[in-house]
């Protein structure tokens, strides 16, 4: 298995964030062991190429620099849980791999019982630009799961 250097991993090579991968990198992503991608771009990027390479795909558009809806977060959490249960690694991306991707990754960890503050501290130790805007930070600080 090779290594794809643009992913910032949070969970031992199983869950991480990255910028939108160029089409020419998709074969390398698959060869590196990546099994799934979640995208929060406003457009459906590279879907045919992900399918061609056997990479599972989740897409839920979020406006750049904004926060997702609670429904989007819950759908993403279900996808992450299923992907990890299936033994696949997952990379989450938006355009730059920091704001929307970081917000969704943080929301996932908050759903597992972590506080927004500890999640942001943990993530920013790995990627200092994770969760890019005050709007996204405020969304996470108010996020509550049943």
From TrEMBL:
<dbReference type="InterPro" id="IPR020422">
    <property type="entry name" value="TYR_PHOSPHATASE_DUAL_dom"/>
</dbReference>
<dbReference type="Pfam" id="PF22785">
    <property type="entry name" value="Tc-R-P"/>
</dbReference>
<feature type="domain" description="Tyrosine specific protein phosphatases">
    <location>
        <begin position="74"/>
        <end position="138"/>
    </location>
</feature>
<feature type="domain" description="Tyrosine-protein phosphatase">
    <location>
        <begin position="5"/>
        <end position="146"/>
    </location>
</feature>
<dbReference type="InterPro" id="IPR029021">
    <property type="entry name" value="Prot-tyrosine_phosphatase-like"/>
</dbReference>
<dbReference type="InterPro" id="IPR003595">
    <property type="entry name" value="Tyr_Pase_cat"/>
</dbReference>
<dbReference type="InterPro" id="IPR050561">
    <property type="entry name" value="PTP"/>
</dbReference>
<dbReference type="InterPro" id="IPR000387">
    <property type="entry name" value="Tyr_Pase_dom"/>
</dbReference>
<protein>
    <submittedName>
        <fullName>Uncharacterized protein</fullName>
    </submittedName>
</protein>
